[in-house]
Amino acid sequence: MNVDQSEIAKFSALAHRWWDPQSEFKPLHAINPLRLNWIKSYVDLQGKKVLDVGCGGGILAESIAQSGADTCGIDLSEKALKVAELHALEVGATLKYRSISAEALADEEPGQYDVITCMEMLEHVPDPASVVQACANLCKPGGTLFFSTLNRNPKSYLFAIIGAEYILRLLPKGTHEYAKFIKPSELVAFTRHAGLEMLGMKGMTYNPITQVYKLGEDVDVNYMIVVRK
Fold it and tell me: Which positions bind S-adenosyl-L-methionine (predicted)?
């Protein structure tokens, strides 16, 4: 299976803090509206069948469901999924969660989803290209897929690891491994190999003084791409 058990253990240990906006997951809460609005700029989520791959505690999946989509979130951390399910019950969000890999679900439900999101997950698996291919297989022809990850270069090492984990302490130490970061050219190559057509790319930056995240054209550190099957 395309999974790093140490990565699962890392996020499972923090699962109970997933919905605390002042916890280690504060950055995810901060960037969620930006990601959601960017997704909505490409697709109308109302009535769409949406899959969130690597959903964790459900921050993005839940907001997609609340935007009117028939939503499923998948992850391999049972603890994170239990937290996601509990929070959905608390706020009355209607969606389902499953503990299954993208590859296994692709065997079960090929071509079943209008929209697929896979955010901040590819840099945590041994074979990111396999996940991209699985997402392509899960998507309906004409469907839209969104991926986000971290670029691999000296600037991203400085900002995403030294800055975010050690200086600003936005994330727990050891959250990311630099060697697993993915250059945009590599991610685009994965999508092209999976038969997906590139539609757009957007970068995300963080200002440590104002503590504000913004979308823009700078893809040196965090970036997202949107592709069509």
Answer: 35, 54, 75, 119
**Residue 54 annotated as binding site:** yes
* Predicted pLDDT of residue 149: 97
Domain ranges of the chain: 5-148+183-212
119 is in an annotated binding site: yes
- Known binder of ligand: residue 98? no
Query: pLDDT digits over 35-45, tens only?
Result: 999 999 999 99
Q: Specify the CATH number of the domain 5-148+183-212.
A: 3.40.50.150
In angstroms, what is the C-alpha Rg of the chain? 16
The annotation status of 35 as a binding-site residue, yes or no, is yes
Determine how many CB atoms are found less than 10 A away from the CB of residue 162: 12
